[in-house]
Amino acid sequence: MSGNIFNSNGTRVAVLNGAEVFDLDGKKIYELKGINLYRLSGELVGHLNSAHGSERRLDRSTDGLFPVRGRSRQI
How far is CA 36 from CA 4, 30, 44, 71, in A? Predict the structure, then answer.
């Protein structure tokens, strides 16, 4: 599965490629197993809202895992 991850405000904050999550600079930052987000060390840190398709949304409690950057664009 590939697509974009948006925070609760609708700002794109990351890219999903298969089970890997990358920041907007292309650096791998998390792994996705089901809807759960894990640090590269294997520590569970949060989850994505269950969604179908290529767009995934974060809930407010998970927003802090993805800092908003100036070049992100809101949809």
Answer: 16, 10, 7, 26
